[in-house]
What does this fold into?
Amino acid sequence: MQKMTLKTLKDFYINHLFNNLIYFWINYGIDRYNGGFFTCFNNYGDKLVSRDKYVWSQGRFLWMLSHVYHFFYDYLDEKKRSTIREASENGAEFLKDHAILPGLKSAWVLDEKGNLLIADKVNKEYDLGIEADHFLIYGLAEFARAFKKKEYYELAVKLFNSVYERLKSGNYKTAPQGKPSGYKMHGKSMIMLETTQELADIAKSFKDFEYSKKLIKIAEESVYETANNFIKRNEEILLEAVKEDGTEAYNELIGSYFNPGHSLEDAWFMMHYAERTDNHVIMQTALDIVKWMTVKGWDEKYGGLPEFLHKDGGPPRGLVKTKNRDDHLVKELKINWDKKLWWVHSESLYALLRSYEQTGDSWFIETYWKYHEYTFKTFPNPDSKIREWIQIRDRKGKPIDAVVALPVKDPYHITRAFMHIIKSLDRITG
It folds into this structure.
């Protein structure tokens, strides 16, 4: 492919973010009557298949709009500012009024008017996974900063404190894949790292400096939980699962796979943490992960990154214990390992560019261009009326109708990655 200058690349991302991605979500994703957002589109983005509102994606949508408003205000004309402001305010109020259960837990899914829908069919309960709590916190806190709404920051803090206590006690659910019996999962420390460090920045914006320090301490605990349990330098891998005692289970299906997208996403979480704390060891660890994942994960036959891989390459494989045979994760690893997903590749683009910004190492920018070519050849929707990406592909890159994680077209990973990319390229090019 013909490479661009980095200034031209920044313009390319600005155009793609605002004239394709944000265009789609502002035009089709805002519920202007009830508040909240529509995200249950099919893979192609041409049909809304449900008006239900998954709190996981509602929080992410609110984060996206608030982050755009706060950091990219000058890129918006007055009409877009007004639209985003109104949608953000209505969305935050909708979530405050409907998404929070007694005991400061997040509901999993609501109908379009905000009525609770049963998520846990076995126990007849409305909460299903603590991940929804994280994204609700993420969205409410970003909204509070963008629009100077301290009461929403205070609500986010209360929700976070509830999450932290539940995680310490072990009394929580995790979804959509669930936590397989007998294993520790990387996702717990990964999502805690990002939630805490982002909330710490927002705490500072409200001059809550002591709480910000407390959050950074929790972020430190999270990053070292990942480093001490899931990063295996001798294997050049970031595992998604280890045994409960922290030891490897390389002969087992669950203990021997990696998720390239998760690893690259967590790598830049670590970079952000390392910059905040001037931690050179964690910065180098993050840079190493980016190299490991973009080399080890690359599909040499068809290009791109599969969803899951065995630590030695190829499809996940190994022993499945009797107690884990019906686990959702086991089915995912077997059925969807070779899918090529939109979010994985957007995370890879930012991780590579952020690594180049940090080091100036030409290896990262050369690898970036390989990923850029595959990503923009594969995922953008050719339909000019839609413009958002077709998010799920088979191994060869053909679009397929499938559900990954939730039955939503999530408005989060690409927009977040592209906003970070634009900021990174702005710093690089001066």
Summary: The mean pLDDT is 95. The first helix runs from residue 6 to 28.
